[in-house]
Amino acid sequence: MSKVSIIISKGSFEGVYPGLIMANGALMEGIDAILFFTFFGLDAIIKRRMDNLKVATVGNPALPIPSLVGILPGVSSFVTKQMKNEMEKLDIPPVSEFIEMIHDAGGKIYACKATVDMFHLKKEDFCEQLDDIVTVGQFYEMSLDGQIIFT
Fold first, then answer.
1. Global confidence as pTM
2. I need a labelling partner for 8 at 20 to 30 A (CA). Which of 24, 50, 89, 115 fits?
3. Which of 101, 124, 100, 98 minimizes the C-alpha distance to 111?
4. Which of 43, 34, 24, 17 is nearest to 149 (CA)?
5. In what order do the strands lie in the sheet with 147-150?
6. Domain count, the chain
7. What's the whole-number average pLDDT of the chain?
């Protein structure tokens, strides 16, 4: 059977969703999927943060607004709301629901131990779908014979 391991290291709205979409797509195609969250990507699986991710409006060349405008208060929230509205039209769920769907479909969800330790987090800080907190070595071991994608 095929396997894909996806590393999510960015905690912005647009940094998390590509990995979730790719993992979900893999599972729908019968491909095993492992999600490995590290650094600020952990925000996607931390209970109190996962549904509050924002679009990065400063230094984002894909946005049709100048970076200087992106620093103004409320701009990130406005752009995030617009993005969420567009995604809702396409029936793309909020992060917490997406994580639950992926987990329920057999996807594995892991947090990087070094990052968890560095940020002084505990297992109870994370959503219930978290399978484990693992080292990079353990992640590589689980990812053998598969593709690794860094988003």
1. 0.90
2. 89
3. 124
4. 34
5. 132-134, 108-112, 32-37, 3-8, 147-150
6. 1
7. 92
H/E run at residue 104:
helix 95-104
Report yes or no on 113 lying in a domain.
Answer: yes
Tokens of 128: 């219930």
In three-state secondary structure terms, 143 is helix
Please answer whether residues 59 and 12 qualify as being in contact, where contact means their C-beta atoms are separated by less than 8 angstroms.
Answer: no
26 inside domain: yes
Indicate the range of 3-7, 11-15, 35-39, 127-131 predicted with least confidence: 11-15
29-68: pLDDT as tens digits: 999 999 999 999 999 999 999 999 998 877 677 777 766 6
Tell the burial category of 112 from Cβ atoms under 10 Å away from its Cβ (0-12, 13-18, 19+).
buried
Is residue 28 assigned to a domain? yes
Q: How far apart are CA 72 and CA 138, in angstroms?
A: 42
34: containing domain:
3-53+95-150
Q: Report, as an integer, the average pLDDT of 76-91.
A: 86
- The CA-based angle 116-15-55, given to 5 degrees, is 110
Whether residue 79 is contained in a domain is answered as no
If we measure between CA atoms, which residue out of 23, 28, 44 comes closest to residue 127? 44
